[in-house]
Request: fold
Amino acid sequence: MELKSSTIFKDIYDVELKNRVKSLIDFFNEEYYKGNKVAFLYKDEDNTISYNEDICFYAASTIKILAVLLMFKRIDEKVFDLNDNILITMDDLKQDSGVIKYQKEDTYYTLEELLRLTIVESDNTAYLKIVSLLGGKEALKEFGNSLGAIHTMEGKATDAFGITNCNDMLIYLENVIAYINLDNENSKKLKTWMLNTTTKKVKVENLNGPFIRKGGEFDVAYHDVGYVKANKPYYLIILTQLMKMDYKDEFINKAAIKIKDINEYIEMRDKDDR
Reply:
């Protein structure tokens, strides 16, 4: 596995910023040299910092934001309606994450409820039904590729989650935030759900603003990705294969704190420059 890190700064001569970034990169290097695959990407309006940004991981539930975004676009196009009643049969149940798996009989859900459960509860049954309604994983792959992502839905033919990397995830998130910024009734729902998802890895108290996010975990995959509404907003993507490590939450949160500290320093420096 090739190690790769990169930075794009508005002010490349800022020694303090360089030192903070070095500390962050060193932190990821330490984990990398243990033999563990880890990656991150930070991006604000002026600066980008990344590490192994093009290395692929199993996407797990982070890919659900792409399916939900596509469904909202289809709803806006009047192909579907949030009030559509969708039957979830007992044969549909996916015995992994979520709450629908506990239903005792075939049950109707509104499309809005399936979307909410996909984001808030990371419900796999709801997600797979949405993918099916959209036309299957090929429709999701086509949509991701149309946005500029490279690896959408790559992987096993029988898998509906695929792989991702920081670069593709950034594309998904930028399009999700662009949709949320439309500030209409549907986009407000998506924002509220992503602010209140149960799949939290990074603790909110370790950030400097509300986190519009989606976590994901399966097998070794353990991720948190999103957009922090700080004074200087930024995208925060942390992808790891640390699921089976007892320090996985400690690692992700230490990384988030280091990234938050960099963001706060940049924001303070820019304010002083004004």
About this structure: The chain has one domain: 5-273. Residues 5-273 form a domain with the Beta-lactamase fold (CATH 3.40.710.10).
